[in-house]
């Protein structure tokens, strides 16, 4: 099964390891290639997708900056992809291209695997790009009492708030001036900005604002222990690292790529094992 990832700055991605590992665990010989626009120019997502389809690929994952283009390119889309308006998984079927958003489903699975039946409560979400949108809708589906959005582009956060409200989820926006007072009144703090990534080091909010009563999620997983995650652990806050999302979105994508229902079931059954593996490898947790 030929798979790949299309995006920018992805050469350090762990996705090839995850999908090849899942292939071995499920008995499906799998290859997974990286198509990085920073390494070799990509004219458009559509042109790259045509190339990989012609080369016999079963499907691809899609990341920044093409997640919204991905759902528009598809002939069919899952509920999550339609709701979020973005896709990170494209499957090449006989009747066209199918788009899914496994960031949406993977966040929900990862939240439950990490934080159990804890209620999300009132959540501050920083960053309303592709993964931020998926996580915001995931929080709504998990029953968050309110999702409060902040983005460097206020128009983006306001638009997402309206989209969430249109689906029946409580949502609002704040400005950076309101950050400190908002954090204190929130149960969950979520980072979906690039801040904390090895190429964009730092913490998305002042570390001293993080308290023991918070639960924290950082979508960044390279490095696995970001400054935000470290700050949360230092004060005893509950933490869901980006490793959770990485694993569960990957498992959900692999299941979409599988053509055999029994193989999908086998992949699902390996999720816990894989999660334990990457917690050891990336987080150093045993």
Descriptive account of the structure:
The protein is an alpha/beta fold. It has two domains: 2-101 and 244-283, Leucine Dehydrogenase, chain A, domain 1 (Rossmann fold, 3-Layer(aba) Sandwich), CATH 3.40.50.10860; 105-241, NAD(P)-binding Rossmann-like Domain (Rossmann fold, 3-Layer(aba) Sandwich). Helix content is 44%, strand content 18%. It is built from twelve helices and twelve strands. It has helices at 15-26, 45-54, 67-73, 79-84, 102-115, 130-142, 154-166, 179-184, 227-234, 242-257, 261-269, 271-283; strands at 2-7, 31-36, 59-62, 76-77, 89-93, 96-100, 122-126, 146-150, 171-173, 188-191, 215-218, 238-240. The strands form two sheets. Strands 2-1-3-5-6-4 form a six-stranded mixed β-sheet, with helices on both faces. Helix 6 links the parallel strand 7 and strand 8 (146-150). Helix 1 crosses helix 10 and helix 10 runs antiparallel to helix 12 (271-283). It is globular and about 55 Å long. The relative contact order is 0.14. The mean pLDDT is 95.
Keywords:
single chain; 286 residues; alpha/beta; Rossmann fold; 6-stranded mixed beta sheet; 6-stranded parallel beta sheet; 44% helix; oxidoreductase; Shikimate dehydrogenase; AlaDH/PNT_NAD(H)-bd; Shikimate_DH_fam; NADP binding
């Amino acid at each position: 099964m030929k798979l790949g990832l299309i995006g920018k700055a992805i050469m350090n991605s762990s996705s090839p390891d995850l999908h090849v590992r899942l292939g071995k665990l499920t008995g499906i010989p799998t290859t997974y290639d990286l198509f990085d626009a920073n390494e070799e120019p990509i004219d458009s997502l559509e042109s790259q997708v045509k190339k990989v389809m012609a080369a016999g690929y079963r499907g691809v994952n899609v990341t920044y900056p093409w997640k919204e283009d991905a759902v528009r390119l598809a002939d069919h889309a899952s509920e999550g992809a339609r709701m979020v308006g973005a896709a990170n998984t494209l499957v090449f079927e006989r009747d066209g291209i199918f788009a899914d958003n496994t960031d949406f489903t993977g966040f929900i699975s990862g939240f439950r695997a990490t934080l159990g039946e804890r209620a999300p409560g009132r959540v501050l979400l920083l960053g309303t790009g592709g993964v931020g949108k998926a996580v915001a809708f995931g929080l709504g589906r998990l029953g968050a009492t309110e999702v409060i959005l902040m983005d460097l582009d206020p128009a983006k956060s306001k638009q997402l708030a309206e989209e969430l409200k249109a689906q029946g989820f409580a949502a609002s926006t704040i400005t950076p001036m309101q950050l400190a007072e908002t954090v204190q009144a929130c149960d969950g703090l979520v980072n979906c900005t690039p801040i904390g990534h090895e190429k964009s080091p730092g913490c998305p909010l002042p570390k001293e604002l993080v308290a023991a009563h918070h639960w924290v999620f950082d979508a960044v997983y390279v490095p696995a222990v970001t400054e935000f995650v470290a700050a949360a652990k230092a004060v005893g806050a509950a933490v869901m690292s980006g490793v959770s999302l990485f694993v569960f979105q990957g498992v959900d994508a692999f299941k979409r790529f599988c053509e055999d229902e029994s193989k999908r079931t086998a992949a699902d059954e390996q999720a816990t094992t894989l999660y334990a593996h990457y917690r050891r490898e990336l987080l150093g947790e045993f």
